[in-house]
Structures are given as structure tokens and as C-alpha cells.
């Protein structure tokens, strides 16, 4: 912490110094930059100043999974990011040497203004900038911290402007000056406050083929005109209020590669239209809309498709057999949270590319198809919340890269551990969630021995993530902007709760040194709580409630100093609750339903008072049991607020609402590191 603080202070010193330097010009320097353009830039500068309050982490939302990652010295979020930059406008130098200013080498005209991620604050009148710098070709003020004002009271001729990026610039109007810009190739107005219908002339921006990149995501746009530029390759319209059927003009864009129209109010797909773009599309995201109807078969013929997200809609019916063919060419498939029924199609082909398959939250039945064992690159498999039956798919243990296996809330049965399986035994797994099924037998000691990934997670920059839906715990970085989605699992979870496991908790579990969440609740486990649990020093949530555990709570648990949630209620534990600084911070609910327990925080805080009579009396009492998820409530709310600050500062009210609403749900959370608190403190 000390080190990064120091670097940070130095960094602040530098920007403050640079931006406050005198504006007197050095008469000896060669002026390539025309005087009137330099004066215009000085005027621009007068309104702005540097700040240390910026985006210190980015947040990604992917299909309802909120991902937040605290990366020092980065700015931006879902819609773009980059390293924070120190802007040095030493006004004794020629203005062409100022940071972010780009000039034509022969004329000296200012042609580029790039203040992206500049850690600035203040107000900038774009009309003045455009009219005083007529040779501008590219403007990027995204995430600079500047609030851009556009008066829409004049038309400026900037005949060369081809690249305009104003993401997250507190923009509330769609700029009129775009009307004249037939040369525009890149337009990014994402994460602003543009609302309602876009004017119909907007469709002419970039002429008939110049515009290739259009990002209007994360505004409040309700409808769009038909864009004409058939050169479009990147279309980002996600997180708006676009309603009705899928906009058919999109299908005229025969070169379209990346399309994200997720998180809108689209109610219908138009498969016939999609057929026109079946050979160019690389990424198709229609998730989080209100689309009904069957799986569009056209998708099976999309020869270049790598990323498909149809999650969180109302697609219904069977997943067609041809799906088994696209699993061999796609890298990421998310059909989660729909109403698909029937069985999971068999995987044809070699399935060598598939990184992630998410079919959670449907009504799928039958067994987990063992043709999935061909998917040797699979990192993430989520089949949770379906109606799958059959036994535990042991052969998944041989997938060498599998990081997350989520089978929660199905009807799977039988024992889970293989008798003597050689092979990988889930050695890369971070998340093992088979909760809420009908599994029986002993806990899988062999797997615990082989969870190598959980034994030693890279202690590099930690990522925090929560999810809004209460479903589960992994995250995928959005493939927006043509980036490869990265499944980034640093949150280690073993959840075997709500099954019928019996026997003792094996000591080897203490070897899972990097485990963060352990949930074995609601089984028939007996014996003592292993002393070895105290070795899992990073553990943040431990739930052993609703079992038949007996004996004393091991003293070693006082070593779990990161614990945010502990629930040992509804067992047969006895004796005094160990007194450690962390254990003392929990409420009584964590221990209720163990008539033999005593000591704070229990109401029965004096162990000597514990007479057998009282124990018996309590044994018959109806205990007001608290759902384990609710125990985390305070913490989750806190996390929501912390994230909320930043979202307010970058203007993402929709997310803020989503998180605020999720406050009462199961939000696994982590203790904020002090360093992070300093980043957010002054944003309150
Ligand atoms: C600004 O530039 C001048 C001329 O290059 C130089 O002498 C001076 O030290 C610079 N000032 C700062 C604060 O960097
Ligand atoms: C610089 O200006 C000259 C003269 O106007 C022009 O021909 C040239 O294309 C410009 N170069 C750039 C990179 O804009
Ligand atoms: C101007 O010249 C420099 C150095 O020769 C070069 O790196 C830069 O790309 C040129 N800029 C433009 C816009 O041509
Ligand atoms: C500076 O800010 C004022 C309002 O505070 C505004 O009227 C003016 O146009 C701004 N100037 C520039 C160059 O952005
Ligand atoms: C954003 O713009 C609104 C007006 O549209 C203004 O009231 C508000 O102060 C601006 N926010 C910032 C941070 O400049
Ligand atoms: C595309 O831009 C070029 C210059 O970059 C321009 O000459 C042309 O007219 C534009 N195309 C259309 C269809 O407007
Ligand atoms: C796209 O669809 C058309 C018309 O249905 C078909 O002829 C063509 O083969 C398809 N392209 C691919 C790559 O499947
Ligand atoms: C899927 O692939 C198999 C084997 O290559 C082929 O027989 C079948 O016709 C394909 N199905 C579809 C719907 O494309
Ligand atoms: C799947 O759901 C549809 C209605 O959406 C129903 O007609 C069909 O019988 C169901 N199929 C199976 C196998 O359950
Ligand atoms: C599993 O589900 C399938 C399809 O619903 C059904 O035919 C089969 O009987 C079920 N098997 C068991 C063991 O419940
Ligand atoms: C807690 O951890 C320390 C250091 O790892 C160890 O020496 C001590 O025995 C542990 N305490 C208990 C009660 O296990
Ligand atoms: C930001 O700068 C202000 C004064 O310039 C300082 O008081 C504050 O502590 C700084 N914030 C952080 C997070 O360093």
C-alpha cells in the first residue's frame, strides 16, 4: 500500500505541476502551431483542471453478471478503457508539443485532440473547439472527466473530421453538427444522457459507406433511424431503450462483424433478416431483451460467429440439433435464462474452441451429454437451474482447463466421486458448485485433494465480483469492442450445499488455501468441524449450517481474519465460541440452533449459566432461523454503495438502480482493501 500511495502522490504532483504552469510563451520556440489555434486551446484549457478523482477501476456487465475489477491507473468501463494519462500542457512550448495535441507536420494545424482518460474536470464547449480548430480530424475526449457542452446553435465546417469519440462526456443532446459529417468513420457517443428518438438525418452520418464504427450504447435512446453506411462493421447499441422488433436495417450491413444490442426492449428476432449477415458476423449479442420465439436456425449457418449471447430473453422450445454443430466452431455461447426445454443437443465435431457454455436457468432435462468431454478448451460450464437428471458427470474432471463447473439446482443424483479415476480430477477448477441436487455419500475427498487451482491462486491484483441475479459467481469480460472475452476467475468457491452428503468433513479441505467461499450447509454431515479449516486464511464465507456437526468449534477459526460471513447454526455444536477479533463481529444468528453453545455473541453469554435444563428447553423451541444469504446483507449493501459512487460519477444510473435493487439478494462480498477505500472516499 505504501508504495502505490507514494507513486500515486508523485503522479498527482506531476499533473498539478504541469497544469498550473504559467501561460507565458517562450519567444525563442518555433511556432508551428498557428497563433489563433494556440489561443483557442488556451481558452479551452482555462476551463479545465486536472483531478485525482477519476475512474480507478472498470466495471463490466455481461449478461447480468456484474464484474468489477480494480485496476490501478486505468480508466473507463464497459465502453472502453485505457491507461490514465498525465496531460502535460507546458505552455512555454509549442502547442503541437502539448500532450494529446496532434498537428499536421507541414502546416502546423491542429488535427488531433486526444484527452482520453486524462484525469481532468471542467466544462468544454465543443462548438468553440470545432469552430476554432477547423482542421481537426480526430477528437477523443472519452472518459477524460470533462463535461462536454453542445449548444446545437451552429454548423461548423470541419471537413476533415473522421473520428469523434465522446464517451462518458455528460452529453445530453445528439450533436447537430454531425449532420454535415459525411466523412465520419468512427462515432462513439456511448455512456451519455442522449434520450428519445434520434433525428432521421442521423442515418446519413458517414455517408453511404464511410462510417464503420458506431457506438451509441448506454444512453436512453428509444429509436434509431436507418443508418445508411454499408461500411459498418461495429455496431454497439446496448443498454438503451430500443423497443419493437430487431431493427432490419442492421441486416443490410453486409460487413457487420460485431453487433451488440443487448439490454434493450427488443421483442422479436427477424431470422430472415439475419440471414443477410450470416457470413460476416463474429459476435452477436441480443441478451437481456424480451425476445420470444424459437431458436433462430439462421444462427447455425453463421460461418464466422465466435460469440453468441441470447441470454435473459424468452426464447423457448427445443435447442435445435444444429446447435451441436456450432458448439464446435464457437468460442462462447450463452443461452442462459430463457425457456428452452428438451435435452441438451449432442456436441458434434471436435469442439476444440469452446471456452464457455452457459445454459443455466432454462428447463432442460435429461443427462449432461458426455460428448461435452470433447470440449477440451472448456473453461466455464454452467448448467445450473435446469431439470437435468442422471448422475454426476465425472468425466468433466478430465477437461484440463475447466475453471468453473456450476450444476446447482438440478435433479442430479448418486455419489459424485469416482472410485479410482486417474486423470485431472478438476485440477484447474476455481468454482465447484453442485448445490441443491440429490447427491449422496461422502464428500469428495479426492477432488478436494486435486483442486490444485484452489490450493494456490495467483496473489496478483484481486478481482471482486458479485452478481445481481443471485445466480452465481463467475464473470466474463465483455467481448465488446472486438476484444476476446476473458473468463477471469479469481473467486474460489466450493458449494456442495443442499444435498444429502453424509460422513465427516475431510481434513484435506484445509489444503485449499485459496478458498474464499465454502458452503456445505443443509446436508447430513457429522463429526467435528476440522481444525484444518483454520488454515484457509483468505476464507470470507463459511457456511456449515443445518448439518449434524458436533463437538466444539475449533479454536483455529480465530485465524480466519478475512471472514465476512460465518454460519454454523442448526448443528449440535457445544462449548464456548472461540473469541477472536473477527469472530466477535458476527451476530447471534451465526450460531443459533446449537443448544450447547455459549459465550458471546449469543444471548447466553455466560457459559456457567448453561444448565442442562435450559438446553432442553431451548431444544424444543422454534428457532427463528435466518436465511444464510441474509447474513451477508449489510456487506452486500455496502458493496453496492461503493460501486454506486463510481457509477454516479460516470453517469450510469441504470446500473446503480440495478445494484440498489439487488441490495437484499445474495451478494458475496469481500472486505474492501484499505487502498481501494481511499480511491472512493472523496467521491461521496
Ligand atoms: C516547459 O518547457 C520549457 C521549454 O522547453 C522548459 O524550459 C521548462 O522547464 C518546461 N516547464 C516544465 C514545468 O516542464
Ligand atoms: C497536412 O496538410 C497538407 C496541406 O494542407 C495536406 O496536404 C496533408 O494531407 C496534411 N496531412 C495530414 C496528415 O493531414
Ligand atoms: C509528423 O512527424 C512525426 C515525426 O516525423 C511523425 O512521427 C508523425 O507521425 C507525423 N505526423 C503526421 C500527422 O503525419
Ligand atoms: C468555459 O465555461 C463557460 C461556462 O462556465 C462557457 O460559457 C464557455 O463557453 C467555456 N469555454 C470553453 C472554451 O469551453
Ligand atoms: C452534466 O450536465 C448537466 C446538465 O446537462 C449539469 O447540470 C451537470 O453539472 C453536469 N455534470 C458535470 C459533472 O459537469
Ligand atoms: C466518404 O469520405 C470521403 C472522404 O473521406 C468522401 O470523399 C466521400 O464523399 C464520402 N462518401 C460518401 C458516400 O459520402
Ligand atoms: C447464408 O445464407 C444464405 C441464404 O440462406 C446461404 O446461401 C449461405 O450459404 C449462407 N452462408 C453461410 C456462410 O452459411
Ligand atoms: C451437423 O454435423 C453433422 C456431422 O458433421 C451433420 O451430419 C449434420 O447434418 C449437421 N447438422 C446440421 C443441422 O447442420
Ligand atoms: C417444450 O415447450 C413447448 C412449448 O414452449 C412445448 O410445446 C413442448 O412440448 C415442450 N417440449 C418438451 C420436450 O418438453
Ligand atoms: C430423466 O429425465 C428423462 C427426460 O425427462 C426421463 O425420461 C428419465 O426417466 C429421467 N430419469 C430419471 C432417472 O429420473
Ligand atoms: C493461527 O495461526 C498461527 C500462525 O499461522 C499459528 O501459529 C497458530 O497456531 C494458529 N492458531 C490456531 C488456534 O490454530
Ligand atoms: C486528491 O487531491 C486532494 C487535493 O488535491 C487531496 O486532498 C486528496 O486526498 C486526494 N485524493 C486521493 C485519493 O489521493
SSE layout and pairing:
Layout: H1 2-19, H2 35-46, E1 48-50, E2 58-62, E3 65-69, E4 74-77, E5 80-83, E6 101-103, E7 110-114, E8 120-125, H3 126-132, E9 138-140, E10 146-149, E11 163-165, E12 186-188, E13 195-197, E14 213-215, E15 220-223, E16 234-236, E17 243-245, E18 258-260, E19 265-268, H4 271-274, E20 283-285, E21 292-293, E22 307-309, E23 314-318, H5 323-326, E24 332-334, E25 339-343, E26 356-358, E27 363-366, E28 380-382, E29 387-388, E30 404-406, E31 413-414, E32 431-433, E33 438-442, H6 445-450, H7 452-455, E34 463-467, E35 493-495, E36 500-504, E37 517-519, E38 524-526, E39 541-543, E40 550-552, E41 565-567, E42 572-576, E43 596-598, H8 612-619, H9 628-631, H10 633-650, H11 653-661, H12 674-681
Parallel strand pairs: 7-9, 8-10, 9-11, 11-12, 12-14, 13-15, 14-16, 16-18, 17-19, 18-20, 20-22, 21-23, 22-24, 23-25, 24-26, 25-27, 26-28, 27-29, 28-30, 30-32, 31-33, 32-35, 33-36, 35-37, 36-38, 37-39, 39-41, 40-42, 42-43
Antiparallel strand pairs: 1-8, 2-3, 3-34, 4-5, 6-7
This protein binds 2-acetamido-2-deoxy-beta-D-glucopyranose (NAG) (12 copies).
Amino acid at each position: 500500500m505504501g508504495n502505490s500511495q507514494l507513486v500515486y502522490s508523485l503522479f498527482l504532483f506531476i499533473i498539478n505541476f504541469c497544469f498550473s504552469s504559467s501561460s507565458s510563451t517562450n519567444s525563442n520556440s518555433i511556432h508551428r502551431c498557428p497563433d489563433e489555434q494556440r489561443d483557442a486551446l488556451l481558452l479551452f484549457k482555462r476551463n479545465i483542471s486536472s483531478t485525482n478523482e477519476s475512474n480507478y477501476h472498470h466495471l463490466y456487465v455481461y449478461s447480468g453478471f456484474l464484474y468489477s475489477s480494480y485496476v490501478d491507473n486505468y480508466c473507463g468501463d464497459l465502453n472502453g478503457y485505457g491507461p490514465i494519462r498525465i496531460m502535460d500542457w507546458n505552455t512555454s512550448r509549442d502547442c503541437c508539443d502539448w500532450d494529446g495535441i496532434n498537428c499536421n507536420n507541414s502546416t502546423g494545424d491542429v488535427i488531433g485532440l486526444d484527452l482520453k482518460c486524462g484525469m481532468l474536470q471542467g466544462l468544454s464547449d465543443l462548438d468553440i473547439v470545432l469552430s476554432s480548430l477547423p482542421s481537426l480530424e480526430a477528437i477523443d475526449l472519452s472518459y477524460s472527466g470533462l463535461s462536454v457542452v453542445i449548444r446545437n446553435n451552429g454548423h461548423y465546417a470541419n471537413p476533415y473530421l473522421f473520428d469523434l469519440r465522446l464517451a462518458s462526456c455528460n452529453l445530453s443532446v445528439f450533436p447537430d453538427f454531425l449532420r454535415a459529417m459525411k466523412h465520419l468513420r468512427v462515432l462513439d457517443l456511448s455512456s451519455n444522457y442522449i434520450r428519445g428518438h434520434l433525428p432521421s438525418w442521423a442515418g446519413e452520418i458517414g455517408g453511404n459507406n464511410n462510417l464503420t464504427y458506431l457506438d451509441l450504447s448506454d444512453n436512453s435512446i428509444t429509436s434509431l433511424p436507418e443508418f445508411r453506411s454499408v461500411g459498418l462493421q461495429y455496431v454497439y447499441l446496448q443498454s438503451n431503450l430500443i423497443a419493437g422488433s430487431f431493427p432490419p436495417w442492421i441486416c443490410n450491413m453486409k460487413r457487420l462483424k460485431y453487433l451488440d444490442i443487448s439490454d434493450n426492449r427488443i421483442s422479436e428476432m427477424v431470422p430472415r433478416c439475419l440471414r443477410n449477415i450470416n457470413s460476416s458476423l463474429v459476435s452477436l449479442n441480443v441478451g437481456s431483451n424480451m425476445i420470444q420465439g424459437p431458436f433462430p436456425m439462421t444462427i447455425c449457418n453463421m460461418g464466422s460467429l465466435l460469440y453468441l449471447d441470447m441470454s435473459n430473453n424468452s426464447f423457448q422450445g427445443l435447442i435445435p440439433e444444429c446447435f451441436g454443430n456450432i458448439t464446435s466452431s464457437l468460442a462462447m455461447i450463452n443461452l442462459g435464462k430463457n425457456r428452452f426445454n428438451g435435452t441438451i443437443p449432442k456436441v458434434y465435431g471436435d469442439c476444440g474452441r469452446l471456452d464457455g457454455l452457459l445454459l443455466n436457468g432454462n428447463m432442460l432435462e435429461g443427462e449432461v451429454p458426455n460428448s461435452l468431454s470433447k470440449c477440451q478448451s472448456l473453461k466455464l460450464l454452467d448448467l445450473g437451474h435446469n431439470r437435468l437428471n442422471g448422475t454426476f458427470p465425472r468425466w468433466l474432471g478430465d477437461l484440463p482447463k475447466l475453471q468453473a463447473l456450476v450444476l446447482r439446482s438440478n435433479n442430479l443424483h448418486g455419489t459424485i466421486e469416482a472410485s479410482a479415476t486417474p486423470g485431472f480430477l478438476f485440477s484447474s477448477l476455481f468454482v465447484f458448485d453442485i448445490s441443491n441436487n440429490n447427491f449422496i455419500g461422502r464428500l469428495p475427498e479426492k477432488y478436494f485433494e486435486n483442486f490444485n487451482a484452489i490450493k494456490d491462486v495467483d496473489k496478483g491484483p484481486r478481482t471482486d465480483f458479485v452478481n445481481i441475479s443471485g445466480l452465481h459467481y463467475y464473470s466474463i469480460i465483455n467481448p465488446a469492442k472486438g476484444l476476446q472475452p476473458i473468463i477471469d476467475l479469481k473467486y474460489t468457491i466450493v458449494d456442495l450445499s443442499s444435498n444429502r452428503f453424509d460422513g465427516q468433513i475431510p481434513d484435506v479441505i484445509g489444503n485449499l488455501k485459496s478458498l474464499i467461499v465454502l458452503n456445505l450447509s443443509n446436508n447430513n454431515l457429522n463429526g467435528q468441524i476440522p481444525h484444518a479449516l483454520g488454515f484457509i486464511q483468505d476464507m470470507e464465507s463459511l457456511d456449515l449450517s443445518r448439518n449434524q456437526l458436533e463437538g466444539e468449534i475449533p479454536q483455529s477459526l480465530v485465524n480466519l481474519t478475512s471472514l465476512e460471513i460465518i454460519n454454523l447454526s442448526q448443528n449440535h455444536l457445544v462449548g464456548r465460541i472461540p473469541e477472536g477479533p473477527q469472530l466477535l463481529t458476527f451476530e447471534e444468528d451465526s450460531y443459533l440452533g446449537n443448544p450447547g453453545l455459549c459465550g458471546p455473541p449469543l444471548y447466553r453469554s455466560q457459559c456457567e449459566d448453561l444448565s442442562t435444563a435450559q438446553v432442553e428447553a431451548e431444544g424444543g423451541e422454534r428457532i427463528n432461523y435466518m436465511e444464510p444469504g441474509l447474513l451477508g446483507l449489510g456487506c452486500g449493501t455496502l458493496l453496492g454503495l461503493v460501486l454506486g459512487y463510481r457509477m454516479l460519477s460516470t453517469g450510469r444510473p441504470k446500473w446503480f438502480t440495478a445494484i440498489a435493487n439487488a441490495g437484499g439478494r445474495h451478494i458475496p462480498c469481500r472486505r474492501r482493501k484499505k487502498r481501494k477505500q481511499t480511491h472512493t472516499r472523496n467521491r461521496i
